Amino acid sequence: MTLAATVGSLTTGTTHLTTGTTDLATGTTNLVTRTTNLVTGTAHLAAESRGFLSPTGVEIAFLLVGLVTFGAAVITVTTRQLVHAALWLVVALGGLAVEYLLLTAEFIAWVQVLIYVGSVVVLLLFGLMLTRAPIGRSPDADSGNRPVALAVAVVAAAALVWVVVDAFRTTWIDLDGAPAGSTEVTGASLFQHWVLPFEALSVLLLAALVGAIVLSRKAKAEARPEADAAATAPASTAPDTPGGTDTRRDTEGAR
Amino acid sequence: MHLAYPAVLSALLFCTGLYGVLARRNAILVLMSVELMLNAVNLNLVAFDVWLSRTAEETLHSGQALTLFTIAIAAAEIGIGLAIVLAVYRNRGTSDIDKLRDTAEGHDPDHPDGDATDSDASATKAAAEKAEATA
Q: Which bin fits A174, alpha (ψ -120 to 50), beta or left (φ > 0)?
């Protein structure tokens, strides 16, 4: 009987001991959790204070390409040689494509290269040549309200940069892991959630195509009688009108 | 990457395009500046889409879809815009938007700055008539 009581008390003591160990283990776990929290907090703090003074490699690449892009854009809007403006626009748009790649939006980057660098700039060059833009420096590329434009642009840039930096100073884009804009991801979201706008967009593109052709053809039909009637009209515009229209239409067809 | 980098670059590009639209005289250069502004908006959309798809687990990818739509609309816009510019050039002989002031308020239509080519044409016509008369 006493043996049983002794065994019972022993068992109880063991249970207490076990409980104590469990408590200790829990305490250790709590401590570990707290330490983890502390580490996480430190990491979070590091991410927040992951300053602009210690940029990552991606940020350095983004900054360099961004400088090139911005410089090309500034030259585009300030150069006096019209064809050079279009060529610098190629540099700016290509730099933006590289920025999309750095932001892991691959599909957008290739679409940018295809559509902007491939077709829009070619269309702009066609337009420049069809309107007989001077090849050399043209002194009247800028209009008279240039100081006002400069003031407006600088004020807008200062306000926008201030607001944006103030709002997103600590926001961090996590670029690790699977790319956010691979063809698979973009295609899935485009054809699952955005099918209706996509189809509407195709109709809009068709309308734009037809509209461009109509604009070109109507002017051509009217240009003939004018050219016959007004023989004293500026001789430079009349002869190249059919050729210009044909080239224009070919360009549109190629698009 | 800090979100501030693409946002600041986008703001700067937008203001560059704004300057170009306001300061340029040739219509095609104005169209180029409009392209710059559209691209600035695209960069903003892509950056915020990447950020939101990671942070907020957003799976719609609305930013990238909107970027694709903007690119397509920009292509349509440049096509129509160039067609209009070419039509204006064919009719007026110039693509300077400073000279296209027919709908300006309180503007004298016979002003030499307003339609220089018309006055040039009438001047040459008058000169031709004068030459015929003297002959």
A: beta
Q: Which of B2, B43, B59 sits opposite A99 (nearest CB)?
A: B43
Any domain includes A64: no
Where are the CATH 1.10.287.3510 domain residues in chain B?
4-98
Please answer yes or no on whether B23 and A248 come within 8 Å at the CB atom: no
Which one is the CATH code of B4-98: 1.10.3720.10, 1.10.287.3510, 2.120.10.30, 1.10.10.10?
A: 1.10.287.3510
- Please report, in angstroms and rounded to a whole number, the separation of the first and last CA atoms in chain A: 101
d(CA B8, nearest CA chain A) in Å? 6
pLDDT tens per residue across all 255 residues of chain A: 455 555 555 555 555 555 555 555 555 555 555 544 544 444 444 445 566 777 888 999 999 999 999 999 999 999 988 899 999 999 999 999 999 999 999 999 999 999 998 899 999 999 988 887 777 777 777 888 899 999 999 999 999 999 999 999 888 888 888 888 888 989 999 999 999 999 999 999 999 999 999 988 865 555 555 544 444 434 333 334 343 444 444 444 444
Check if B84 contacts A (Cβ < 8 Å): yes
Query: The pTM is what?
Result: 0.71
The answer to whether residue A249 neighbours chain B at the CB level (below 8 Å) is no
